[in-house]
Amino acid sequence: MSVRAFAHRLGYSGPRISRILGVTAAAGLLAAVWCAPAFASNWLEKTLYLWGPRFDSQIPGCDNSWALGTIRHRFATKEGRFWNSALRIEGFDQIREVAFRPWADGTIPRRFCTGRVLISDGIWRTVRYSIVEDGGMIGASWGVNWCVVGVDRNWAYNPACKAAGP
């Protein structure tokens, strides 16, 4: 017995049968798309919406100039805007990777790094930071979370910036 004959036997006719068939086809298509194998997200998905944990782990290295420049800029902004301080990062030294994807598969890939920064007050301090895949503005690029030991004035990563590590 066909679906149309079965629907007719239940008392459904004409447009109602078409609607039922359309909903059934849409549900089948949705199920097929939902069960498809996962691949790394493409540019369109990263720009509009990331459907699931499809990461490609393409994260820049710890010494990447973009990441270090972001830390330098945000440190100066934070100190000037929120703490009325003229402290700036003058330079980076001894940059090294601490961990890469230290947690279970399916979690957001991160590269954890540490190093030293020369602050404009002449003191070398430890910096701990992570570069996060899809952690930037609306998930369209990488993000950087960072903390400078001794200048974490709001204690966001206390004690001694250990919460900024893996």
Describe the structure.
- By secondary structure, the protein is an alpha+beta fold.
- The protein folds into 2 domains: 3-36; 65-164, Nuclear Transport Factor 2, Chain: A (Roll), CATH 3.10.450.
- It has helices spanning 3-9, 14-34, 43-48, 65-82, and strands spanning 89-100, 110-119, 124-132, 143-148.
- The chain has a 4-stranded antiparallel beta sheet with strand order 1-2-3-4, covered by helices on one side.
- Strand 2 (110-119) and strand 3 (124-132) form a beta hairpin.
- The longest helix is centred in the first third of the chain and has 21 residues, at 14-34.
- The protein is elongated.
- The model has no long low-confidence stretch (mean pLDDT 83).
Strand and helix map with partners:
Layout: H1 3-9, H2 14-34, H3 43-48, H4 65-82, E1 89-100, E2 110-119, E3 124-132, E4 143-148
Antiparallel strand pairs: 1-2, 2-3, 3-4
Q: Which features characterize this protein?
A:
166 residues, alpha+beta, Nuclear Transport Factor 2, Chain: A, 2 domains, four-stranded antiparallel sheet, 4 strands, 31% helix
Q: Flag low-confidence runs.
A: none
User: Helicity, in percent?
Assistant: 25-40%
Name the helix and strand elements from N-terminus to C-terminus, one letter apiece. Answer: HHHHEEEE
Overall tally of domains: 2
Average of pLDDT: 83
- CA gyration radius, whole angstroms: 26 Å
Q: What is the β-strand count?
A: 4
Class from helix and strand fractions: alpha+beta
The CATH level-2 architecture of the largest domain is identified as: Roll
SS strand fraction: 15-25%
Please give the count of helices.
4
**What would the CATH topology of the largest domain be?**
Nuclear Transport Factor 2, Chain: A
